[in-house]
């Protein structure tokens, strides 16, 4: 049973690469149920440099992207490797996204995600984004597993 994935292991599961791969680690993994993803928001992160000059903040859309990456890694790590070969996970819907406080550089963003249900290739998740235990954002979203183009 896998309890933790490092960045290299996440790269083996997801097609994302720098600078778009946002999650550094996936820990507290409960197979196909829940996990915590770690995002290191740095002063030199690509999205901080221009969003916004002199008032840097992580864009909300990238918090949602990080939620999606964490959910994809949780799902890919939990299903049979042969089932996931040549597959991708795509976001389908984003619901109830709320951005409560700005996420500033030089913080660790923890994403607590939970798989709510699955039906075939469609999965529904919910998550909370926290910095030092403070709720920064939360959302629900759906994703689907699709075949990769060859």
Classify the fold: give the CATH topology. Answer: Thiol Ester Dehydrase, Chain A
**Name of the CATH superfamily:** Hotdog Thioesterase
How is the biggest beta sheet arranged? 7 strands, antiparallel
Q: Count structural domains.
A: 1
Overall radius of gyration: 15 Å
Can you walk me through this structure?
There is one protein chain. By secondary structure, this protein is of the alpha+beta class. It has a single domain (4-147), classed as Roll (Thiol Ester Dehydrase, Chain A), CATH 3.10.129.10. It has three helices and seven strands. A seven-stranded antiparallel sheet has the order 1-2-3-5-6-7-4. The longest helix has 19 residues, at 60-78.
Question: Helices and strands in order, then pairings?
Answer:
Blueprint: E1 4-5, H1 7-13, E2 25-30, E3 34-41, H2 60-78, H3 81-84, E4 87-99, E5 107-119, E6 122-131, E7 134-147
Antiparallel strand pairs: 1-2, 2-3, 3-5, 4-7, 5-6, 6-7
Concise account of the structure shown:
The chain is 20% helix and 44% strand. It has three helices and seven strands; from the N terminus they run βαββααββββ. Strand 2 and strand 3 form a beta hairpin.
């Amino acid at each position: 049973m896998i309890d933790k994935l490092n960045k290299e292991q996440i790269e083996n599961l997801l097609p994302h690469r720098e600078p778009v791969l946002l999650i550094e680690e996936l820990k507290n993994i409960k197979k196909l149920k829940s996990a915590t993803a770690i995002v290191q928001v740095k002063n030199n992160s690509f999205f901080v440099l221009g969003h916004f000059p002199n008032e840097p903040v992580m864009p909300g859309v990238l918090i949602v992207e990080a939620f999606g990456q964490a959910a994809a890694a949780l799902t890919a790590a939990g299903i049979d490797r042969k089932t996931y070969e040549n597959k991708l996970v795509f976001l389908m819907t984003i619901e109830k996204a709320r951005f409560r406080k700005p996420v500033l550089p030089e913080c660790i963003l923890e994403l607590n995600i939970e798989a709510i249900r699955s039906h075939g290739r469609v999965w529904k998740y919910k998550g909370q984004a926290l910095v030092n235990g403070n709720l920064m954002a939360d959302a629900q979203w759906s994703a689907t597993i699709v075949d990769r183009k060859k």
